Amino acid sequence: xxxxxxxxxxxxxxxxxxxxxxxxxxxxxxxxxxxxxxxxxxxxxxxxxxxxxxxxxxxxxxxxxxxxxxxxxxxxxxxxxxxxxx
Length: 86
Hints:
Layout: H1 4-37, H2 48-68
């Protein structure tokens, strides 16, 4: 049986999630935009192998984090051979 205390606690948890989750998603998206800025070959030069490994790690983190929410997806990373200049 659900008590008033349980319902109140559940509401508090939902409110906390509603407050925290969108802000953290926004922070993540902002960080990804900053990472994208580093792809400008006019300003940066990078080791493709290191970048590939970094994106593999990021993809793994995304998949692991999504799994915590019961969401699964596959990520396929394909190295492109042409240069992408911004």
